[in-house]
């Protein structure tokens, strides 16, 4: 997948690169996602953000306009994203909910989300989509067996 990661700190670069293993085309940006930096998302499928990146409705509209289909937040909480509006736009959203909250663990969770999406699978516990997802429902059904 083609992705741009915003608000990347210096120490995160190597962690994301190692977790990625040259699978996805990642662009790493130190700046936050904003109207001034949204142009980096052009031609990408995914934006990867931090909890400080505020994704309000108008910014989500523009992300959709430039081709973004998915958002991964490198945070547990998603209150910085208008999830309802993202859902209305058909943009899938995932977070990094697993117990390993180290920088390495978050990098691995982020890439895990990309890997699952690329294979057409639901991201499971990381799914923050507000719409009913047939893939997620199928996966939930499989887990219950």
Automatic annotation (TrEMBL):
Residues 9-101 form the D-isomer specific 2-hydroxyacid dehydrogenase catalytic domain. SUPFAM superfamilies: Formate/glycerate dehydrogenase catalytic domain-like (SSF52283). The keyword Hydrolase does not apply. InterPro entries: D-isomer_2_OHA_DH_cat_dom, D-LDH-like. The keyword DNA repair does not apply. Keywords: NAD. One of its GO terms (molecular function) is NAD binding. This is D-lactate dehydrogenase. It comes from Sphingobacterium allocomposti. The lineage of its organism: Bacteria, Pseudomonadati, Bacteroidota, Sphingobacteriia, Sphingobacteriales.
């Amino acid at each position: 997948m083609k992705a741009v990661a915003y608000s990347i700190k210096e120490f995160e670069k190597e962690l994301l690169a190692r977790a990625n293993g040259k699978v996805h085309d990642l662009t790493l940006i130190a700046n936050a996602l904003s109207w001034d930096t949204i142009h980096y998302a052009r031609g990408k499928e995914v934006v990867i953000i931090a909890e400080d990146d505020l994704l309000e409705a108008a910014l989500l509209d523009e992300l959709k306009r430039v081709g973004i289909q998915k958002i991964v937040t490198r945070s547990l909480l998603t209150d910085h994203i208008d999830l309802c509006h993202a859902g209305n736009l058909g943009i899938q959203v995932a977070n990094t909910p697993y117990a390993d909250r180290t920088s390495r663990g978050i990098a691995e969770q982020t890439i895990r989300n990309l890997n699952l999406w690329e294979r057409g699978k639901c991201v499971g516990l990381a799914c923050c989509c507000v719409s009913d997802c047939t893939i997620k429902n199928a996966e939930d059904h499989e887990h219950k067996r």
